[in-house]
Amino acid sequence: MAMINSKSGEVTVRSLIQYIQDLASYANLYEYNETQEAGHWAITLFHEHEKKWSVFLANYFAEAFKATGTEPVIEMSERAITIKI
Q1: pTM of the full structure
Q2: Would you tell me the crossing angle of helices 51-66 and 13-26 to the nearest 10 degrees?
Q3: In sequence order, which residues have a C-beta less than 8 Å from that of residue 35 and are 6 or more positions away?
Q4: Contact, 48 vs 23, CB < 8 A?
Q5: What's the distance, CA 61 to chain centroid?
Q6: Residue 73 forms beta bridges with which residues?
Q7: Per-residue pLDDT tens for 18-63?
Q8: In terms of DSSP H, where are the helices of the chain?
Q9: Confidence label for 1 from pLDDT (cuts 50, 70 and 90)
Q10: Under DSSP, is residue 34 helix (H, G, I), strand (E, B) or coil?
Q11: Nearest residue to 20 via CA among 32, 10, 9
Q12: Exposure check for the chain: N or C terminus, fewer CB within 10 A?
């Protein structure tokens, strides 16, 4: 969360989403896709690694969203996770 704090000054849902987008754009850790329906967001991260990477991403971002006071629903497959907030 230190990276988010240093960039935006605080950890919010919006700054966390920006961080997730930045990791996709600059670190190429996954492909990022975002949809919004009825005021809820679904963020899907596609990657080329195995299920262990999905488990890592799911747990990492679940804890990150908890730091913002948000309890996301995270669905996981072998090559993707979807974060619903």
Answers
A1: 0.88
A2: 150
A3: 41, 42, 44
A4: no
A5: 5
A6: 84
A7: 999 999 999 999 999 999 988 888 999 999 999 999 999 999 999 9
A8: 2-8, 13-26, 51-66
A9: low
A10: strand
A11: 32
A12: N
Q: Which two tokens stand for residue 34?
A: 């975002």
Burial of residue 74, with CB atoms counted within 10 A of its CB: 0-12 exposed, 13-18 middle, 19 or more buried = middle
What is the token pair recorded at 24? 């996709």
Structure-block tokens of residue 22 = 């930045």
Q: Could you tell me which of 44, 51, 55, 53 has the C-alpha nearest to residue 21?
A: 44
CA distance linking residue 23 with residue 79, whole number of Å: 17
Structure-token match 């966390």, residue found: 16
